[in-house]
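In response to reviewer comment 3 from the previous cycle, which asked for concrete evidence that the modeling workflow produces usable outputs, we include below a single protein chain processed end to end. The sequence was submitted unchanged, and the resulting structure tokens are shown without manual editing.
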Amino acid sequence: MDSAIPPQRRYLGVDLGGTKIEVALLADDGSFLLRERRPTPQGDYAATVETIADLVELADGVAGSRLPLGVAIPGSVSPVNGLVRNANSTALNGRALLADLEQRLARPVRLHNDANCLAVSEAHDGAGQGARVVFAVILGTGLGAGIAIDGIDWLGRNVIAGEWGHNPLPWPRADWGENAAPWCWCGKPGCIETWLSGPGFAQDHFQQSGQRLVPAEIMAAMRKGDAAAGASFLRYCDRLARALAEIINILDPEVIVLGGGMSNVSELYSELPQRWVDWVFSDTVRTRLTPAQHGDSSGVRGAAWLWRGAAQ
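The workflow returned the following structure tokens.
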């Protein structure tokens, strides 16, 4: 190899999820040099830190050096005390995860919300590439969102930018029982998450039909012509369209990217743009709606890209 050619930069990221922890080592062109997963130790904070350490040690061996680490988490770090807050993986709440990882791994760490990492990934080299403002949504077990501006995640003054899921569902419909709002794990009633997460979708279907099905089963039933499943899906679309219309009215992003399990429902991408026009305060809606290009790897890719532009 020509010694005048500098080595390719590499980036290290971890996606800390409720069921799995994933590490990725990325080349500068976005290709994976390593990608490995482990189950998340349920309710065990110390074991979670050690699982991350084991995965990072594996990546160190491939990289041949200790790279700075980016971590995607289902919550955020308080700017007041440095502790994790607002995580639906509740074992993380109140923990000094950033400091603990930096001490355990002996390297600098950046800890950002997983939806923000999704936004960074898709803005950098995914479905939102070339857009100045990308709003990214995780429609999964919970519901999160993040904002990327010029490829960098916007955290906001209180480090909660994009916490869309913990606002009330807009324009509630009494005929669908939306005034009797379900209680959220955060302690407040009627959060968007309670309606639009996967469990929220399943619970609404159960209440209306008496059938206990998971979202994939509801969609399969709808595609076979089941009327109750079809009605549940249309309620879901209407609620999601209203909720996203509120984002368009406030942020007016060029692209909205969907991630998480519900993002794989192809019918969303035709239904939502037809429905949100009734709620967006404009004579036209040019916002593009798209699934995440990198799918379930967007979180770990975005975590790695948190160190893009930093000296190595």
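Residues 2 and 8 are 13 Å apart (CA to CA). We consider this sufficient to address the reviewer's concern, and the full set will be provided in the supplementary archive.
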